[in-house]
Write a structure and sequence with these properties.
heterodimer; A: 299 residues; mainly alpha; Serum Albumin, Chain A, Domain 1; elongated; B: alpha/beta; Phosphorylase Kinase, domain 1; Rossmann fold; 2 domains; seven-stranded mixed beta sheet; five-stranded antiparallel beta sheet; globular
């Protein structure tokens, strides 16, 4: 009678006439190195039936915990780190905006005119730390006596200035992270980054999930990444289809006149799709040439 | 606290304020899995089973007539995610049973791992449910298959797994998310198509739509021929 053997994550089992006749269990150390030896094709049913015993199940549990922990650790791809970074920059933008509004409310009790005169939050937080109220008002051609600001004792100004200092640090952090994204994207996805810059490239990557997925998407999917809500509304209810997703922020699409925005987005997505495929399959650098093609069509 | 046995073995009901809620006996007393309430009675502890967060829980509340998962069952759970429902399945089958908890995403499996480390009857597996040939090395024959994955060909994957791992006469539970089969079609139509497909391969025992707990979802309970 012919023997058949089956190797799974806990060892090798020999069957004779559909009966389990021999078991060779792997040692703890072998479990992680065993994967190449495991039987590839799905076994006949009697094999799986013979293994459904408490003693094997307990061993399988220990083995799968070890193996799965390894698999989780090995599932990291370099682009996952950039995806986290780009999400973090978005997060900082939101937080910084909220804090900036609070800082202005607070500081305006002391010096409303200066706050009104400057729009950029970052500059605002920086200047109120560097200069006194007198100096800031002088630049506006005013004196402290003409201002609507109240006199605030130094001890009450301290928390305001502390917040301003944290704000400046937050903006500096954002700048450093943006720089990190720029260098990492240029290294990992040189063609996509040349096509649409590191931030838009990283956002596309974040929605797609991984470089592999982005590379395997058709261009029409890339065109609409980030517009899922509108797309599904279109499919479900027949509302107008969206023309672009994240790539609306790309300078080429953004500056095109409204009637041509859809066309620009379509062509840009085509070229980004090519760029992503080159990056994934490690082809030679073509990003600049691709970008030029689109730029010449839509200037 | 008054705990009453449910009509299915391994499942209980508890009185919580004015409501009657489902619960299972906690295999790891003192531990919560997803922030659910714990009820104590005597020396046993029970975990509330939230039907709005678990499709199997929703099916039970909707009065499903059979689930095929008993104390002592071995269950293949496809789409275990972070372990919300699979922890209750683990509670039902108890120390004598076993749950093969399979999921594809490393991110959610990380969460699942913490569960498997403390529950002696759960085994975490990272694999793609579409390809049984890639994970049969971590699985044995099972008494029941539960599948809750958001894939276009959910029914096909389910039949593939039942054929490979489910014992003859065993039960398979399939949660269908109509929106991942085809967003454009009417859910009712998709459910009918799935039913026709399943009927060719199995005997359908029960069918429930999961409104109002889950929108456009339904659950099929099948018996392997």
């Amino acid at each position: 009678m012919a023997h058949t053997s089956y190797t799974n994550c806990i060892g090798t089992f020999v069957f004779d006439d559909k009966k389990l006749v021999e078991e060779k269990l792997s040692g703890k150390k072998e479990i992680l190195t065993n994967s190449a030896k495991m039987t590839a094709e799905t076994p006949p049913f009697y094999v799986l039936e013979a293994l459904a015993q408490p003693k094997y199940l307990a061993l399988m549990r220990e083995a799968t915990i070890l193996i799965t922990k390894r698999k989780v650790a090995e599932s990291l791809r370099p682009e996952y780190l950039v995806v986290q970074a780009v999400s973090n920059v978005d997060e900082i933008d939101k937080v910084a905006n909220n804090l900036a509004k609070r800082l202005r409310e607070w500081y305006e009790l002391y010096n409303p005119e200066f706050s009104k005169s400057i729009e950029a939050h970052e500059k605002f937080a920086e200047l109120i730390q560097q200069k006194t109220r007198k100096e800031l008002l002088a630049e506006l051609g005013m004196t402290e006596a003409e201002s609507m600001g109240a006199e605030i004792p130094a001890e009450d100004m301290k928390p305001i200035m502390e917040l301003a200092k944290q704000m400046s640090e937050l903006y500096a952090l954002r700048a450093r992270h943006a720089e990190y994204i720029e260098t990492t994207m240029t290294r990992l996805l040189p063609n996509v980054t040349a096509m649409c810059g590191s931030m838009i490239g990283a956002k596309l990557l974040a929605v797609a999930g991984s470089l592999e997925k982005l590379a395997l998407f058709p261009a029409s999917t890339i065109q609409l990444l980030g517009a899922e809500k509108a797309l599904f509304r279109h499919i479900k209810t027949g509302a107008k289809p969206p023309k672009f997703g994240i790539i609306i922020n790309h300078p080429i699409v953004a500056r095109t006149k409204p009637a041509d925005k859809g066309k620009a987005a379509r062509m840009l997505a085509d070229k980004i799709s090519i760029a992503a495929k080159i990056d994934f399959f490690k082809g030679e650098f073509k990003g600049d040439a691709l970008r030029k093609e689109v730029e010449e069509k839509f200037r | 606290m008054t705990i009453m046995p449910h009509k299915f073995k391994g499942i209980y009901t508890a009185k919580k304020g004015k409501n009657i809620v489902l619960c299972t006996k906690n295999l790891t007393p003192g531990r919560k899995v997803y922030g659910e309430d714990l009820f104590k009675e005597g020396k046993d502890e029970y975990r509330e089973w939230d039907p709005t967060r678990s499709k199997l829980g929703a099916a039970l509340v909707k009065g499903v007539s059979q689930i095929g998962i008993y104390p002592g069952s071995k269950v293949l759970y496809l789409g275990a995610s972070t372990g919300t429902t699979s922890s209750h399945v683990s509670d039902i089958v108890g120390e004598e049973g076993f749950v093969f908890a399979l999921d594809f995403a490393p991110r959610t499996t990380r969460q699942l791992m913490y569960l498997c480390e403390v529950r002696n009857n759960m085994s975490p597996i990272i694999a793609d449910a579409r390809h049984p040939e890639t994970y049969h090395q971590y699985v044995t024959m099972v008494d029941a298959v539960f599948q809750d994955i958001a894939q276009r060909n959910q029914a096909e994957i389910f039949i593939k797994n039942c054929n490979a791992f489910l014992k003859p006469g065993g039960f398979g539970i399939l949660a269908i998310k109509a929106r991942s089969v085809d967003v454009g079609k009417k859910p009712k139509q998709i459910f009918a198509e799935v039913r026709a497909y399943l009927e060719k391969n199995t005997t359908i025992v029960d069918y429930r739509e999961l409104e109002p707990f889950e929108r456009d979802h339904c659950i099929f309970v099948c018996k392997k021929k």
